[in-house]
Write a structure and sequence with these properties.
mainly alpha; two-stranded antiparallel ribbon; 7 helices
C-alpha cells in the first residue's frame, strides 16, 4: 500500500500543508504585525485540521476527539494531570523571579475586565495550540500505520515524533529561557497524557491549567503594561 501523500483523504497531505504553512509564517514574520502573526497562526492551528477532518483525511478518534473512554481517561488522566501540574508548579517556583528579569516592573494595576479578557483569550489560544499538537499526533499515527512496514508501538512513535515537530514552534516564540523551558515541559506533559488517555479534552485541560500556573498575568487586577 502506498503512502498516498498527495491524496486529500490521507493524513500525509495535511501534514505537508501544516509544515509548509509553518515555514511560510516563519519567513513572513518580519513583514507581519504581531496581530496578523497570531491570527494566521490560529488559522493554521484550527482551520487546517478542521478541513482535513471534514474531507475525511484525518481521524477524529486518533486526534482524541471521539470514541473516548471517559471512565478510564478520568481515572488515569486526572492523576497524571495533578502530578504533571505539581511538577510544573515546582519548575515555576524555581524559575521566578530571577529567571524572568523585569517582569515585575512591567506589572501595573489594571481593570479586572482586561484580566478576564486576557485570560479567556489565553485559554482559547492554548486550546488551539493543543488542537494543533493533537492533529500532529493523530496524523502521524495514521500516516505511520499506512506505511508499507509500520513499526510496533505506532502510537508511541507518532506521539514523540509529533513532539519533535511541535517543539521548535512551541519554544521559538518565547521571550526568555524560563518561558522556553516551561513551554517545552507543557508539550512533554501533554504528550505523556495523550499517550495514556488519547483524549484531546484532558490535554487541553492540562495545557490550560499549566498556562494559568506559569502565566505572568495571572495576578487578579493586573495586566502587562503596553511598552509600545
Amino acid at each position: 500500500m502506498g503512502l498516498g501523500l498527495l491524496d486529500w483523504q490521507t493524513p500525509g497531505i495535511w501534514l505537508l500543508f501544516s509544515m509548509v504553512g509553518g515555514l511560510t509564517l516563519l519567513l513572513m514574520r518580519p513583514l507581519l504585525s504581531p496581530t496578523w502573526q497570531e491570527a494566521l497562526k490560529m488559522v493554521r492551528w484550527l482551520l487546517l485540521p478542521y478541513i482535513g477532518l471534514l474531507l475525511g483525511g484525518l481521524s477524529p478518534r486518533l486526534l482524541g476527539l471521539t470514541n473516548l473512554d471517559w471512565l478510564a481517561s478520568l481515572g488515569l488522566g486526572l492523576g497524571l494531570v495533578f502530578a504533571l501540574l505539581l511538577l510544573l508548579g515546582l519548575v515555576r517556583a524555581t524559575t521566578e523571579p530571577t529567571a524572568m528579569p523585569g517582569l515585575q516592573s512591567n506589572l501595573q494595576p489594571g481593570p479586572d475586565s482586561s484580566t478576564v479578557t486576557t485570560t479567556l483569550y489565553g485559554l482559547i489560544h492554548r486550546g488551539a495550540q493543543e488542537f494543533h499538537w493533537c492533529f500532529l499526533r493523530g496524523a502521524l499515527w495514521e500516516f505511520i500505520y499506512r506505511s508499507p512496514t509500520p513499526p510496533s508501538l505506532i502510537a508511541y512513535w507518532a506521539i514523540w515524533l509529533a513532539a519533535l515537530l511541535a517543539a521548535p514552534e512551541a519554544i521559538g516564540g518565547q521571550s526568555s529561557a524560563a518561558h522556553r523551558l516551561l513551554a517545552l515541559l507543557t508539550l512533554l506533559a501533554t504528550s505523556v497524557l495523550f499517550l495514556y488517555t488519547r483524549n484531546f479534552w484532558l490535554c487541553w485541560l492540562l495545557h490550560a491549567a499549566a498556562w494559568l500556573i506559569v502565566n505572568p498575568q495571572r495576578e487578579t487586577g493586573y495586566r502587562i503594561r503596553d511598552t509600545g
